[in-house]
Amino acid sequence: MIKFTLNGESVSFDGDPQMPLLWFVRDIQNMTGSKFGCGVGMCGACTMHLNGAPIRSCSTPVSVAQGATVTTIEGLASAPAKAVQEAWQKLDVVQCGYCQSGQIMSATALLEGNAKPTDADINMAMQGNICRCATYHRIRAAIHDAADRLAKEV
């Protein structure tokens, strides 16, 4: 039996421990915000946080979550997460939207660990999050905007 916390709630799973965490979250928990993109952890659409760190849930077995805390786009509630989501809307980052939950998860993890990231920091944190619509300039601008919002709140 695999037990962990998902978006603040205790969950358990008594199935194949090698099932990708993404399938457990989407198919069993009915939380569809995290997307399936490539299936090999290269595109970032499936990004979730495991104990606060971004992971690719399509290639992470559910067994890795044993005793851990998993956060999906549905469970984001921190000040950095709210600042990121507000900046995304303000700067109209989203085009098709498919990759955006993964982008927001990675951006939030960055700002939770680095309150004033440089462009290089953003590039490093966001690498592997693919946007077929190429909204990278708006994503970077939104991360800077969110960092500025957070600095003003302090």
- Please report which band the strand proportion falls in: under 5%, 5-15%, 15-25%, 25-35%, 35-45% or over 45%: 5-15%
Question: How much helical structure, as a percent, in the residues?
Answer: 25-40%
Low-confidence stretches: none
Largest sheet features: 5 strands, mixed
Total beta strands = 5
CATH architecture annotation of the largest domain? Orthogonal Bundle
Give the CATH level 1 class of the largest domain.
Mainly Alpha
Task: Using the coordinates shown, work out and report the CATH topology of the largest domain.
Answer: DNA polymerase, domain 1
**Multimeric state:** single chain
Strand order in the largest sheet: 2-1-5-3-4
Q: Structural class of the helix and strand makeup? A: alpha+beta
Which homologous superfamily in CATH is the superfamily of the largest domain?
A: [2Fe-2S]-binding domain
